[in-house]
Every structure is written in structure tokens, then in C-alpha cells.
Write a structure and sequence with these properties.
mainly beta; nine-stranded antiparallel sheet
Length: 125
């Protein structure tokens, strides 16, 4: 079953006033210093608001580039329908989880949190 994902923006409260698409997550938001998102670089357990995120559109759709404080980065492709995220390139796949009002994306040991309103269907059986 598909997991429907809608991002709520990168700042403010956990309860969105108006849902947005995954692609809009990279737009700088009020309350998010410098448009940064919560992340945990490889080897770190705690999330801190320290990763920059950039949004670009190419012939295949929207790509989010998330940058770690050490200069490393990952590129994430947003599904055309705005319902999911996958690694845009590289050997490591993106592991995507929804945790309440948050989408957590893990790539190469780094973890990124994007605010979201997730609609998860019941499991079969």
C-alpha cells in the first residue's frame, strides 16, 4: 500500500494550517533559522536543526539537496505526485519512515526530518 505524504513546511508548529507537497519542504519557512531542518549526521544519535536544504526542479521533477554541517550532502528526488521521496543518485537507497507529523529520511547513515502530515492506511490482514 502507498503511504500518502504531505509536508507541512519547515518551521512553526507541528500542526500545519495548510498541507503542502513534499517539494515545498525546502522553501525557507518562518521560524526555521536560515531554512535549516532537523538532522543527525552519521554516528550522531540526537537531531539538531543544522542541515541546510535546497530545492531544484529538473526535467524529472523536484530534487531536494540536504547538506550536512561537514559539507557532505544527499540528493533526494520527490515523487511526481508529491507522495514520496527516494535517493536521487548514489549507491545508498533512502529509507523513508513516517513518525507522526514527521517524515524521517535516512541515507548513508545520515538522518533528516521534514515536517509532515502523513496519512497511513491500515495494514492488511
Amino acid at each position: 500500500m502507498a503511504i500518502g505524504l504531505l509536508l507541512a513546511g519547515c518551521g512553526g508548529s507541528d500542526a500545519p494550517d495548510q498541507p503542502q507537497s513534499v517539494a515545498e519542504a525546502a522553501a525557507p519557512a518562518p521560524g526555521a533559522p536560515d531554512g535549516r531542518i532537523l538532522c543527525a549526521p552519521p554516528g550522531e544519535a540526537e537531531f539538531r536543526r543544522m542541515c541546510a536544504v535546497e530545492r531544484a526542479v529538473d526535467a524529472k521533477g523536484t530534487v531536494l539537496t540536504v547538506r550536512l554541517p561537514d559539507g557532505g550532502f544527499h540528493r533526494l528526488r520527490v515523487a511526481a505526485d508529491g507522495r514520496g521521496i527516494a535517493a536521487a543518485d548514489g549507491a545508498a537507497p533512502a529509507i523513508v519512515r513516517t513518525r507522526g507529523a514527521v517524515i524521517e529520511v535516512e541515507v548513508g547513515g545520515a538522518r533528516y526530518r521534514l515536517p509532515a502530515a502523513a496519512k497511513v492506511p491500515d495494514a492488511p490482514g
